[in-house]
Amino acid sequence: MSIKVLIVEDDREIRGLLRTALAAEGFEVLTAVSVSEATALLAHDSPDLVVLDLGLPDGDGAQLVRVVRSRSAMPIIVASARHQEAEKISLLDEGADDYLTKPFGVSELLARIRVALRHRGTALQPATTRYAQGDLLIDVDAYRVERDGLALHLTPTEFKLAARLVRAGGRVVTHRQLLADVWGAEHVLDTHYLRLYMGQLRAKLEAVPSAPRHLLTETGVGYRLAVD
Amino acid sequence: MNSSTAADRSGRWRSAVVAVALLAAATAACAVLDREISLMSQAMIYLLAVVAASYLLPRLAAVGSAIGAVAALNFFFVPPRYTLAVEHREHLIALAAMLAVALLVSYLSGALKRESAAARESESRAGQLASLAIDLAAAGSEDEAIDIGRRALLQRFAGPVLLVTSIDGAMATGVDVAEDVRRALRCCIDEAAILGPGTGRWPALEAWYVPLGTRGRVVGAARIEPALASDTIGREHAQAIAALVAQGVWRLRLLEANLAARAEVERQHVQATFLASVSHDLRTPLAAIVAAASSLEAQRSRLGEAEQGRMLAGIVAEARYLSAVTDNTLQLVRLSAGGPALRTEWQSLEEIVGSIVGRLRSRACAGRVRARVGRALPLVRGDATLLAQLATNLIDNALKYSDGAVDLTVVEQGGRLLVSVKDRGRGLAPGDESRVFEPFYRGRDTSEARGAGLGLALCRAIAVAHGGSLEVGRRARGGCRFTLALPVAEQPALEVPA
Q1: How far apart are CA B392 and CA B458, in angstroms?
Q2: What DSSP string describes A103-172?
Q3: B345: which chain A residues are within 8 Å (Cβ-Cβ)?
Q4: For chain A, what is the total number of helices (H) and then of strands (E)?
Q5: How is chain A split into domains, by residue range?
Q6: For residues B226 and B232, what is the distance between their CA atoms, to the nearest angstrom?
Q7: Do residue B346 and residue A191 have CB atoms under 8 angstroms apart?
Q8: pLDDT given at position B227
Q9: Under CATH, which number does the domain A130-225 receive?
């Protein structure tokens, strides 16, 4: 059975192009032009993934994210223009899985969809606890981090930070989410903790800390682990 | 004028006491010298007292002391003594003459006193008006001019004094006054005429309402207390002050209108240049996209696989460039419009450089960029998106204007973080060092490269918005070096264990 993707986008041209591009990859594509149409489709067709455009004519995407999250762990990818940065971040904090900044290429979209689908149904299946890519291995359950086969020592906070990114499995984790999960809700505004600890982590995990290959920065949004 | 009745009463008492004292002194002197001098000399002594009283006392008291002096001379020294009767006809004539002289002296000296007082007052008023004119000429704002006017009025009037401004007959808002006062001010401004006691208009008012300016050029009104119908001089003085203040305010308004007009011309010029540049920067890639896309649409069957691939790659590259130009333009407009302040957080330059290098990796030119970031650099306060855009623009610029390697380095030096981007391109023409940052400036011989104009202007705007600076210099063996300097603030503390 093919995977169903719901595209919520009010611009006809982009909607048409995305439909063609995704259909060519073998997805079954549903489209909606508004939040209300999307809500109706979600109820009847139960898609596997949603690509949600910000700034729809009939209301805010946050509402749709809440509706979806109240029922399922279906991946949501937010597509936004650059001036919608703040809205995008708040949607990620609300539970959207990932984002794309317009204009984006089809290959970027496909990469995001792949990452998102890998975690389909995370609410039911055990979360990702292992990251193995290139020279780096992080095994959360075994409390083990290796580079080039050599064990590395991480402080407890560094390990918590790395583990949080591993569990996201290549999806972006916002500053607020990281701060809340690693340091606690009272520290959600202390972004300097992240800068300092990410710096330490990169110094240990990356071959060239100023040209990271694993711990990627999403400028102004958060961090993610690089995956193929 | 401006004294109350109680003050009047005590003044009158003081005059009476002084008059009586002068007469008593004259009487005592005459009594002491009674045996040595004649009645004529005694009359002179009394006359002296009358002259002194005329000089020192108001007119009524002076006249009273003249009559009192004649009566006292008659009573104490003219025979028969201790009666008001007069024995000799000669003495009667002498007393009558003395009374006439005393009255005349008191009148003359009173007139002299009044004239000299009037001269003094008019001199002081002229002086006040002159210094008011000087103060007003130096006033830099309407509020200041109004304040100077208020202080000038308070020098002459006990107050309260109220000045309001109006524009095109509409009173300035935010003036908190009683309804009747507002109505009177309104009428004063509308009719451009003085109202109040002694003016023939609304004489029942308790204050004068003086328009600031003449008909057609009224810039406000003043309300002045106390206002006495008889105080013509005070009223004229108030009008003179009002005229000067009006002139000052009018001058400031003309100046402001003039400056605004000039700024508007300037703004339109900048806007026109801006639009011309942006439309150039947008049209060029658009033209390339349309050309390639329409060629693919119309001639696909006749184009080889490689040519089609090249055109498609060109469309993608041009579209990405278009997107970057749009971002730069919007960001520059946002920054120069003085919009909301930066969203600053602690940022790591290592991280920002890392994200840029990561993004370059997918591009063909990735191998040309060499990044070197110092170890354990301090954090800076800033907006990550803007700082990343700044560094990206500098790198793109270096890649575009040179063919070789581009070096990106970040070091800490003298309390600042220095981010340098160096290339070995043709470098700058002399004199271009400051002009490359002007919006829309393009270096010479750059007809084939484009869009540098806005990018560097935005870079500098971002640097300045972060309290830093962005400079460019020529390198010793060719090429140029852009250096961003960011201030390093006191580092934040960590409250949690490692």
Answers
A1: 11
A2: S--HHHHHHHHHHHHHTTTTTTSPPP-EEEETTEEEETTTTEEEETTEE----HHHHHHHHHHHHHTTS-
A3: 191-192
A4: 8, 12
A5: 4-118, 130-225
A6: 13
A7: yes
A8: 84
A9: 1.10.10.10
Q: How far apart are CA B317 and CA B320, in angstroms?
A: 5
- Per-residue tokens: A161: 């930070």
Distance (Å) from the alpha carbon of A70 to chain B's nearest alpha carbon: 32
For B137-256, the fitting CATH number among 2.40.50.430, 3.80.10.10, 3.60.15.10, 3.30.450.40 is 3.30.450.40
Q: What pLDDT digit, counting tens, does each position of B47-96 carry?
A: 899 888 888 888 788 888 888 888 898 889 888 888 888 777 887 888 88
- Domain ranges for chain B: 5-120, 137-256, 279-334, 341-487
Round to whole Å and give the CA distance between A23 and B229: 95
Residue B322 φ then ψ, to 5°? -60, -40
Question: Chain A to chain B, count of Cβ pairs less than 8 Å apart?
Answer: 75
Q: Does B498 touch chain A (CB under 8 A)?
A: yes
pLDDT (average), residues B303-316:
91
- Sole residue written with tokens 């990281």: A178
Q: In terms of Cα–Cα distance, which of B424, B347, B417 is closest to B388?
A: B347
Of B295, B213, B204, B308, the residue nearest B254 (C-alpha) = B213
| Yes or no: domain A4-118 corresponds to CATH 3.10.180.10 | no
Q: Global pTM? A: 0.63
B341-487: what fold?
Heat Shock Protein 90 (3.30.565)
Write the residue in B353, B357, B379 that is nearest to A192 by C-beta: B379
